[in-house]
Amino acid sequence: MAALPVLMAGGLLLMAACGDGDDPDPRVGQIGGISELATYAYTGAGTEGLYDYLSERVTDVCTKEQVTEALAEHEQPIGWGEIKDVTFQSEDTATATVILIYRSDRQAEEWTFVREGTKWRIDNVPGLESCESAG
Length: 135
Description:
This protein is α+β, with helices and mostly antiparallel strands. It has helices at 3-18, 26-45, 47-51, 56-59, 64-70, 129-134; strands at residues 79-90, 93-101, 106-116, 119-124. Helix content is 43%, strand content 28%.
């Protein structure tokens, strides 16, 4: 429950960032929302929280333990900053720069997303490649 105000504040920032008319594509807001929710799940519950937002392609070959092992070398973020540079490769796949907040600074990471049915899921984050190749 303590994370709810933080999520709401972040969501308002996302809406403000996406609501300026620069990009009317609703998929941008959907991808931004999933990246923010996944980041806060990751900060609160570790890789187990992030796992719930991964695509079926990833979860079909990687267990929660394998994801934890794959991301063990990466610092866990403490917050989500913003999403930018969303590029669609097709109607159902995209890449975006996700700005994550760490204890010492903010870092940009490239994430990939895929739409499964009506929901966007995370298909790759830095470090996850080793899990996929292990599966």
